[in-house]
Amino acid sequence: MSRFPAATDTVTPRQPRGQERVITGNRQTSWAFADAFVAEDEALRWARDRAREAGLRSVAPSTGAALRLLAASVDAKAVAEIGTGTGVSGLYLLQGMRADGVLTTVDPEPDHQQFARQAFRASGFASNRARFIPGRALDVLPRLADAGYDLVFCDGDRLESLECLAESLRLLRTGGLVVFEGVFANGRTVDSGPQPTEVIRLRELLRAVRESPELVSSLLPVGDGLLCAVKR
Fold this sequence. Notes:
Layout: H1 25-36, H2 42-54, H3 61-73, E1 78-82, H4 88-96, E2 102-107, H5 110-122, E3 130-134, H6 137-140, E4 149-154, H7 161-171, E5 172-181, H8 197-211, E6 215-220, E7 226-231
Parallel strand pairs: 1-2, 1-4, 2-3, 4-5
Antiparallel strand pairs: 5-7, 6-7
């Protein structure tokens, strides 16, 4: 039988709102274990190597696994990705999508998209499973269909985060997911010291998502932070 604490019981005090818990060695070990838990195939490893050579940052394995899970959870048939890179995140999204799903992926660097094409092909995905659009996100997204997507994944220019949020909400169907990667900014988002404009934009994004009555949100502590929200 459950019971509520009596007045004489000792209760651990709540963490004050807005105050961050200390990141212990055990937590760091747990995060490392979450990454190691994910088994990546040859195509993913190849795409990671190409990203490293190009000086690009790829999503962590645990982040990729979360993306795969999220895509599967909404039975995603249409996904829009902002920031193709060399295809690491795209591979995870495709793995979670329906067999007839199409990934629309946008990136200003066509050369990077060519690597992603090769990675998708090497992983066994037919060419019609992905639509590659070169260009800046804010130039391309307005051309995509209203309410035509089950999931929008944003891993582009952090300075454009709020604009990408507005476009994502237009693109998503009711019950669809918008996901932003890298919202921790290597710990700078919660650092009290002076921060660059991109970190200030991320803080504004977090506040906008948390306070929006249109969204049900959660911040997942995988990789460099994964902000997820369902459109009501």
